[in-house]
Amino acid sequence: MAIYELRTYSAIVGKMGELTALYTNEGWPALAKHPQKLVGYFTGDIGALNELIHIWKFDDDADRRAFWAGVFSDPEFMAFAAKIRPLIREQNNKLMLSAPWGPKP
């Protein structure tokens, strides 16, 4: 059964532009080298200002752990991560399972 990971990064107020520029120029190019697991990136709007949200889809927990192990061992990604950490106020991760009804991403 697929596992979905919802990651929400709350940027420090005033730093969202810098955060999205770093993701555009360095983060996504580093992540794109790894297996395609991303469902999509989203930015907060009403009620979720200063949030960068991403949803990932994995085959199972082993697939999820292997993916992140590969990403976290990538020097290019880790150099990007060091740059964004000071811009993030809070990070929340949730693991979710798809409901047995409705569309499947």
Structural features, described:
This protein is of the alpha+beta class. Helices cover 36% and strands 31% of the residues. It has helices at 16-31, 61-72, 75-84; strands at 3-11, 38-43, 51-58, 88-97. The longest helix has 16 residues, at 16-31. The two termini are 13 Å apart. The mean pLDDT is 94.
Short synopsis of the structure:
With 105 residues, the chain is an alpha+beta fold.
Main beta-sheet strand count, sense and barrel state: 4 strands, antiparallel
Query: How big is the Rg?
Result: 14 Å
Mean pLDDT: 94
Q: Structural class of the helix and strand makeup?
A: alpha+beta
Low-pLDDT parts are none
Percent in strands: 25-35%
The span between the termini is 13 Å
Main attributes of the structure:
alpha+beta, single chain
Topology of this structure?
Layout: E1 3-11, H1 16-31, E2 38-43, E3 51-58, H2 61-72, H3 75-84, E4 88-97
Antiparallel strand pairs: 1-3, 1-4, 2-3
Helix pairs in contact: 1-3
